[in-house]
């Protein structure tokens, strides 16, 4: 299977998972988009873990399917950016800045935590 098909297969699963997060955590206009936040932070955590635990054991096809496809389809930078702009448009500037700052810090912490756990759990 070519690389693009591995990415597409993973992306289909990741995009469907992201949709389900949005259904489970709906957004009210003008409020903090918690579904996007949850998807981005859990995606960063999972990718960090995979980078630590499986970095040297994943085949190129598995990396393309999971890291690029699945987690690329699951996490939502573009949605996060638009949600932040929409908060400003709705008059919730404080919420927009909180969304940007908290999401950025939480994503970095989640990625670092996932990497640390993955490296610690990795068999010698």
Descriptive notes:
The protein has 124 residues and is mostly helical. It has one domain (3-121). Helix content is 80%, strand content 0%. It is built from five helices and no strands. Helix 1 (3-24) packs across helix 2 (34-53), helix 2 (34-53) packs antiparallel against helix 3 (60-74) and helix 4 packs antiparallel against helix 5.
What's the short story on this structure?
By secondary structure, the protein is mainly α. The chain has 5 helices and no strands.
Any chance you could write out the topology, listing elements then pairs?
Elements: H1 3-24, H2 34-53, H3 60-74, H4 77-89, H5 93-121
Helix pairs in contact: 1-2, 1-3, 2-3, 2-5, 4-5
The SSE string, one letter per element, is: HHHHH
Percent helix among the residues? over 70%
Portion in strands:
under 5%
DSSP summary: helix tally:
5
Taking the sheet with the most strands, its summary is: none
Query: What is the count of distinct domains?
Result: 1
**Which structural class do you get from the secondary structure elements?**
mainly alpha
Give the distance, in angstroms, between the N- and C-terminal Cα atoms: 31 Å
Q: Please give the number of β-strands.
A: 0
Low-confidence stretches: none
Specify the overall morphology.
globular
Mean pLDDT: 93
Rounded radius of gyration (Å): 16 Å
Q: What labels describe this entry?
A:
single chain, 124 residues, mainly alpha, 5 helices, 80% helix, globular
